[in-house]
Amino acid sequence: MNDRQERIRNILVPVISVILGFALGAVLMLIFGFNPVTGYQAMFNSAFQSKMSIGEILVGAGPLIFTALGFSVANSAGFFNVGLSGQALCGWVASIWVALSMPDTSKAIVLPLAIIAGALAGALAAAIPGVLRAFFGTSEVIVTIMMNYVILYVANHIVNNVMNPDIISNKGVTKIIGANGSLRAQWLTNIFGGSRVNTGFILALVFLVLVWFLMKRTTLGFEIRSVGLNPFASEYAGMSSKRTIVISMVISGTLAGLGGVVQGLGTFMNYFVQGSSISIGFDGMAVSLLGNGSSIGILLSALLFSVLKLGGQGMQFAGVPSELANSVIPIIIFFVAIKYIVQVGLARVSGGKKEEAVVKEILNEDETAKEHENKEGGEL
């Protein structure tokens, strides 16, 4: 199997996963007595009915791009950062706090400071599990899951008991930030018919390019990918696995924090007490997996998820319950998760038994390498 065939197969796997997701979603609608054609028609009509709805698609995609990039960087280093929700929440709270604390200062000062504060807050939240993983061999999955809860309750405590009462509107809700701290731009609002679209989406596009350049064209990116593939060989080649682990988690947290910044300064323009972990973290993981960690894939996946979430609300007007509409996303991720079956099926269709055997052998080798790495992970 040559490189060209492998690239084509890597593209086809998420595409087929999306198609199968929609197909199985349609089957579920039929089982429960709903018309899938009418349901999907309502979904896409709702998502693309006006300039405003298209703007809202971009609003939803911006934070997802950041959290997906954060997950992609950590995943390239061989780690599963499940703490994206908490790291994004840190960015949201920090950016709003800074913006509201300087109501009379110039936008040229407030907005950069608020963005930097949010990014640093996310980086700090990710550095903790990174250090624990690198120097003590703890599981980053367990630590980041637990930190999501810690950050959630600390953030709610900060809003309720720590922030200056002058920036609080009601119990657990801050005031709306001023124009000097907002990511919204009037020209974008005018283009998209009064939607909440903001420069956060443009910032996300910039970071898609920056992260691609970092991972593909820099020494640090090469080290991150090398440690992810084989930390022991990387150590033998003179790379510091511990340093690379911490740096990759910090970068991941910085990107997730920026996702929270866009959520705060662009989408809602304030902060309010959260009852559970914010969804952009877990959705960002799904976006990254569907996009195979690539910049183009993440962009397209983020737009797709935003369409599904926005259009899912429109399906209710066709009589389809929101629960069935929302089931399409997890079904798509299910097929991405079992890409082994999809890849083997593609090999069987395109190349016969010989190519199918080659694909199975490659996938088995990858799984064996991952198992070995996980067993020895505590000794890094």
UniProtKB/TrEMBL annotation:
<feature type="transmembrane region" description="Helical">
    <location>
        <begin position="197"/>
        <end position="215"/>
    </location>
</feature>
<feature type="transmembrane region" description="Helical">
    <location>
        <begin position="54"/>
        <end position="73"/>
    </location>
</feature>
<keyword id="KW-0812">Transmembrane</keyword>
<protein>
    <submittedName>
        <fullName>ABC transporter permease</fullName>
    </submittedName>
</protein>
<feature type="transmembrane region" description="Helical">
    <location>
        <begin position="108"/>
        <end position="128"/>
    </location>
</feature>
<keyword id="KW-0472">Membrane</keyword>
<feature type="transmembrane region" description="Helical">
    <location>
        <begin position="293"/>
        <end position="312"/>
    </location>
</feature>
<feature type="transmembrane region" description="Helical">
    <location>
        <begin position="135"/>
        <end position="155"/>
    </location>
</feature>
<feature type="transmembrane region" description="Helical">
    <location>
        <begin position="12"/>
        <end position="34"/>
    </location>
</feature>
<keyword id="KW-1133">Transmembrane helix</keyword>
<feature type="transmembrane region" description="Helical">
    <location>
        <begin position="245"/>
        <end position="273"/>
    </location>
</feature>
<feature type="transmembrane region" description="Helical">
    <location>
        <begin position="324"/>
        <end position="342"/>
    </location>
</feature>
<feature type="transmembrane region" description="Helical">
    <location>
        <begin position="80"/>
        <end position="102"/>
    </location>
</feature>
<dbReference type="InterPro" id="IPR001851">
    <property type="entry name" value="ABC_transp_permease"/>
</dbReference>
<keyword id="KW-1003">Cell membrane</keyword>
<dbReference type="Pfam" id="PF02653">
    <property type="entry name" value="BPD_transp_2"/>
</dbReference>
